[in-house]
Specification:
Elements lengths: L2 H4 L3 H9 L7 H5 L3 H9 L3 E3 L8 H7 L5 E3 L7 H9 L7 E3 L8 H10 L5 E3 L8 H10 L5 E3 L7 H5 L14 H10 L5 E3 L10 H11 L5 E3 L7 H9 L6 E3 L8 H10 L5 E3 L8 H7 L8 E3 L8 H10 L5 E3 L22 E3 L8 H10 L5 E3 L8 H10 L4 E3 L20 E3 L7 H10 L5 E3 L8 H10 L5 E3 L10 H8 L5 E3 L8 H9 L3 E2 L3
Parallel strand pairs: 1-2, 2-3, 3-4, 4-5, 5-6, 6-7, 7-8, 8-9, 9-10, 10-11, 11-12, 12-13, 13-14, 14-15, 15-16, 16-17, 17-18, 18-19
Helix pairs in contact: 6-7, 7-8, 8-10, 10-11, 11-12, 12-13, 14-15, 16-17, 18-19
Length: about 525
């Protein structure tokens, strides 16, 4: 790089760096020069905190002063003290994730809400023993929240074992009172995830009717795994919210009539999840599709009556679609065909666990979705490398998952795949010849999952590590043909590696683990 090119204004470099797909590329850029290090530090907006990072937090906060989002999902220490430390860091946060914690961090959250006036998003999902009092605290201290996730609270075993509790009056779980406190105090709230919360069924309709009246700005609603009625869906339809996202994954008790009424009222909906709505069939989806012209993403997984007809219907009738999820349906069966129309907007297809899926279906996909970037056909036993090859010839895939596809022995191509970054082939028919193909064609591969590929050996892995210069993560668990002695060689031979899951039998000592970490690579237990 010439000195003249380094003289570009800061704003130009920021535009260039921000045009990269993901911030993981910042690491290599930061090594080019001090100026690039400074720019990448400034553009780092997301920080994930784990227990080993605690001693270095002051330095990290000082280095990445423009961080807007902090993720504490994997943190297992004293959450209150860490939140207090974050509150005093001088950062101007907009998003905090404290999900999967054993207790709600009341003290830390109060200080965080007091100091972080621009906090807009809070994720409290999967917190054990979430209570109404916690929701009241959120509503009082984080008054500018726009997005809140309190889904999937985990019950305390001691609480559940006490059969004498009066569930209508107990404060040991979330009820209508807590939801109303949120909707009444959080005036800017436009998205809330309430999946699997203990809202009393007898009063759920009245609860939501009041909530809809308060929260007129709600644009996203998630009620996954809940008991809902057609009456509730009618209330939602008549609320005239600026709704863009609706998630009813694995909900029960509603019918086609209820969902039809909602969709007819919200034809500007961009995201729809009806996973597990078993009453849906091809005929009903043809009727619903006329309301879905604005959809960007749809999830129809676990709707066992849906076949090829539904897939090609929504491909035709939803011109804005970028993502389709139809896992564990009856894709591959041709009940009746519709007109086939090219949809250049589709980028992502999740079609795993469809046993009837065939190479012929993939040929049609390759023709109709020319700009496809992500494909998951894991556990589709009927496909071979022929179908995969058709996709790779027609589309510039970045992400491919063929887990448990035993008849896929190769990628079915003999040309370079410069865009492919993620290849998950867990339990597939891959062997050393397959890895030689990967080594010769996938020059930008970042993540490679070969778990339980029994025909892969040390020689094949060596080819990949030597030739794939950007490789960051590789999973070799249950690859019995790979010698565990190759692990140290991999760390030293491929500096880009950041994580290795070795074959079973390799358990690094603490000193070995630290030694590998000093070389930038986490080596897990096989």
């Amino acid at each position: 790089m010439t000195e003249k090119s380094l003289d570009l204004p800061q704003e130009c470099w920021e535009l260039i760096f921000n045009s990269l797909d993901e911030q993981r590329h910042f690491e290599s850029l930061s090594l080019v020069s001090r100026r690039f290090l400074s720019i990448t530090n400034y553009l780092r907006f997301h920080l994930k905190i784990t227990d080993p990072a605690i001693p270095f937090l002051p330095q990290l906060f000082n280095r990445f002063q423009n961080v807007k989002k902090i993720d504490l999902l994997e943190f297992q220490g004293d959450l209150n003290s860490i939140l207090c430390m974050i509150s005093r860091s001088g950062l101007d946060l907009e998003s905090v994730n404290i999900s999967k914690q054993k207790r709600f961090p009341l003290i830390g959250l109060r200080e965080l809400g007091t100091r972080m006036k621009n906090l807009k998003e809070l994720n409290c999902s999967k917190i054990r023993s979430l209570q109404d009092s916690d929701l009241v605290a959120i509503s009082e201290t984080c008054s500018f929240l726009e997005v809140l996730d309190i889904s999937y609270p985990e019950a305390d075993s001691n609480f559940l074992s006490d059969r004498s509790l009066d569930l209508e009056s107990s404060s040991g779980f979330v009820t209508d009172f807590g939801i109303l406190a949120l909707s009444g105090n959080l005036k800017r709230l436009n998205k809330i995830d309430l999946s699997v919360n203990g809202i009393g069924i007898p009063s759920i309709d009245s609860c939501f009717k009041e909530s809809f009246a308060y929260a007129r700005g709600l644009c996203e609603i998630d009620m996954s795994n809940s008991f809902i009625s057609d009456e509730l869906l009618c209330l939602l339809a008549e609320a005239c919210l600026p709704l863009k996202k609706l998630v009813l994954s694995h909900c029960y008790n509603f019918t086609l009539a209820g969902i039809s009424f909602v969709l007819s009222k919200y034809q500007s909906l961009e995201y729809l999840n009806l996973e597990g709505a078993n009453f849906l069939d091809d005929e009903s989806m043809i009727g619903l599709s006329r309301f879905l012209c604005s959809l960007n993403s749809i999830n129809l997984g676990f709707c066992s009556k849906l076949t090829n007809s539904t897939f090609f219907t929504i491909l035709r009738d939803c011109p804005s679609l970028t993502e389709i999820k139809m896992e564990t349906t009856n894709l591959g069966l041709d009940d009746f065909m519709t007109d086939l129309v090219v949809n250049p907007r589709v980028k992502s297809l999740h079609l795993a666990r469809n046993g009837n899926l065939s190479d012929q279906f993939l040929r049609r996909v390759a023709l109709l979705c020319p700009n496809l970037q992500m494909l998951d056909v894991s556990h589709c036993s009927g496909i071979t490398e022929e179908g995969i090859g058709e996709i790779l010839r027609s589309c510039e895939l970045k992400h491919l998952e063929i887990n448990a596809c035993r008849q896929v022995y190769d990628l079915g191509i003999a040309f370079e795949l410069p865009k492919l970054e993620v290849l998950r082939a867990l339990g597939s028919g891959f062997n050393d010849d397959s890895l030689l193909t990967v080594a010769n064609t996938c020059c930008r591969i970042l993540h490679l999952d070969l778990e339980n590929c029994l025909n892969v050996t040390t020689n094949g892995v060596r080819e990949v590590v030597e030739n794939c210069r950007t490789l960051r993560e590789i999973n070799l668990r249950w690859c019995d043909g790979v010698n565990i002695d190759i692990v140290a060689w991999m760390v030293f031979s491929r500096p880009s590696l950041r994580k290795i899951i070795p074959p079973c039998g390799f358990a690094p000592t603490e000193s070995q683990r630290d030694f590998f970490l000093r070389h930038g690579c986490l080596v897990c237990k096989g």
